[in-house]
Specification:
elongated
Amino acid sequence: MGNRKRTGGARRYIRSKAPRLQWTPELHGSFVDAIDRLGGHEKATPKLLLQTMGVDGLTISHIKSHLQIAIWKT
């Protein structure tokens, strides 16, 4: 377990198997509406947002990433 040798500086990036999601204006609007219905970004958890939005193919990882960007921009 601890016998692996590192041959480089940074570890290699492994891309997610989930397809990349394009956040359309309509999808973002649904995201913002869900945040408002849940009482604001302080109360809106990724799991609740996912359930409230009810969009097929949307994952909790998509929500978490978009939530970070949305909070950063406010």
